[in-house]
Amino acid sequence: MQSEIEESLLNKKLKVIIALFIAVVIIFLILFRNQFFQSTYLLKSFGELSVDPEIAFKNNKPTFLEFYAEWCEVCKEMAPKVSLLKEEYEKNINFVFLNVDNQKWENYIRKFEVNGIPQVNLFDEKGNLISTFIGKQEESKIRDSIDQMEKEAKSNEKIVNATFSVIERNKNRDISPRSHG
């Protein structure tokens, strides 16, 4: 009989320990959910909020094109850094995210010879490939390439100051096709 009481107490203690363990795990997951699930959420949102590549290559803005997969651990690790870059530059640069598991993007995967992910391609406003990054990259390295790309784009822009003189038309110097200049 005493062994039954001891066994009953042991079962109760075991149940309490298991319940406490489950409670601790749940509390831990709630408190640290951002660290565990933020990257996966970011990757999903990248794909959903991405600029369509057809539009990106035709709207005369530089383009940041990332090939990724939701199961890719390196993609998940880089997602918060890429998100910061997107927030900072999205007014001036198209951000395109293509999931390599989506058959819809197969032609882009072949065209840009994607054989490792994440792969980031940077294009100038004319759609010319400027840089390619494959695998885990430091945010600063990608940021430097984006900044350099923006500087080159701005140096090619036509700069017009609001203060300028209009050239007056001189009727004595009109040129016609017969005047030979």
Mind explaining what this structure looks like?
19% of the residues are buried. The protein is of the alpha+beta class and 181 residues long. Helix 2 (33-49) crosses helix 4 (73-89). Helices cover 50% and strands 13% of the residues. It has a four-stranded mixed sheet with strand order 2-1-3-4. The model is unreliable at 155-181 (pLDDT under 50). Helix 4 (73-89) links the parallel strand 1 (63-68) and strand 2 (94-99). It has six helices and four strands. The protein has two domains: 2-31; 37-155, Glutaredoxin, CATH 3.40.30.10.
Feature tags:
single chain; 181 residues; alpha+beta; Glutaredoxin; four-stranded mixed beta sheet; 6 helices; 4 strands
What is the topology?
Layout: H1 2-31, H2 33-49, H3 53-56, E1 63-68, H4 73-89, E2 94-99, H5 106-111, E3 119-123, E4 129-134, H6 139-155
Parallel strand pairs: 1-2
Antiparallel strand pairs: 1-3, 3-4
Helix pairs in contact: 2-4
